[in-house]
Write a structure and sequence with these properties.
heterodimer; A: about 150 residues; alpha/beta; 4-stranded mixed β-sheet; 6 helices; B: alpha/beta; CBS-domain; 3-stranded mixed β-sheet; about 45% helix
Chain lengths: ~150, ~140
């Protein structure tokens, strides 16, 4: 399994030059706890950071409480782990673990942002495989059970 | 194994009438993503406060965290897990309600801890690993 086969294509992203208030509104609208921060060019944006709800709250405690006065570029986590679509999933998960992150922007062959992959996506994928394996053994144990054999 | 055994982290609390900024500072000082909001008498959970609640509350109320209280932005009426619940019961309950974390309560309903998805997954993975050990040992025997 490759990263590109599992990642989400609807990336919630925002420009690094926008105020944090805009990111906060976007996160509420989209019901997400994190957004990918991008820089130009607009037609094939580059991921330059990740901004989480925790980053926002902590920035407020340190400086201006007014979210429109804080720039995203100043409080985001810069230089995020970026994964490529053709990377193997197990390798990608190892790199996420090494960096201690639960989500990573995904880029295509040209380096442009094409998706995002999260801990939740990988867990769901493993869960589906495990459920399929359980269905297989369940079917076989029913077949092996003498009570279900016709005599 | 019951939930009381595997909810690893200590639980930190807040009160509904507390200023939101104070709760946010507590979350940072403790390096946690959530506080359980309790009533002051019986220590019963009345809400959960996360970073997301703090951001959403400010956007929806058009006010910053210095002008709000915990009670105004918390998610009220949290789903709780009894301390004696088994791992699978906790997973069922939290999955059915769509919550990633739940206060753990004793028989009287008083707060005893907190359990999160991050506690449940390693516990489940450990069970799976033991099961895989059986399969692995038998596969080796067959090939020996």
């Amino acid at each position: 399994m490759k990263v590109g086969a599992l990642c989400r294509r609807q990336v919630v992203s925002i420009s690094a030059s926008a105020p944090v208030s805009e990111a906060a509104r976007l996160m509420c609208e989209q019901q997400v706890g994190a957004v990918v921060v991008t820089a130009a060019p607009a037609d094939s944006p580059i991921a330059v950071g990740v901004l989480t709800d925790r980053d926002i709250v902590r920035a407020q405690l340190d400086g201006a409480a007014d979210l429109s006065q804080i720039r995203i570029a100043d409080v985001m986590t810069p230089e995020p782990l970026v994964l490529s679509e053709d990377e193997r999933l197990d390798e990608a998960v190892r790199r996420m673990r090494a960096r201690g992150v639960r989500r990573a922007p995904v880029i295509g062959a040209g380096g442009a942002l094409t998706g995002v992959i999260s801990f939740d996506d990988v867990l769901a994928h493993i869960g589906r495989s495990l459920a399929a394996l359980a269905r297989l053994t369940e079917r076989q144990s029913r077949r092996d059970d003498p009570a279900t054999h016709q005599t | 194994m019951s939930i009381a055994d595997l909810s690893s982290a200590p639980v930190y609390t807040a009160f509904a009438d507390q200023p939101l900024a104070a709760a946010a500072r507590e979350m940072r000082a403790r390096d946690v993503g959530a506080l359980v909001v309790v009533d002051s008498r019986a220590q019963r959970p009345v809400g959960i406060l996360t970073d997301r609640d703090i951001v959403r509350g400010q956007v929806e109320r058009r006010a910053d965290l210095h002008c709000l209280t915990v009670g105004e932005v918390m998610t009220p009426n949290p789903v709780t897990v009894p301390a004696a619940a088994a791992l699978s019961e906790a997973i069922q309950t939290m999955s059915a309600h769509g919550v990633r974390r739940a206060p753990v309560v004793d028989r009287s309903g008083a707060l005893q801890g907190i359990v999160t998805l991050d506690d449940l997954l390693p516990a489940l993975a450990q069970q799976l690993s033991v099961l895989a050990g059986i399969a692995d040992a038998q596969a080796r025997q067959r090939h020996a």
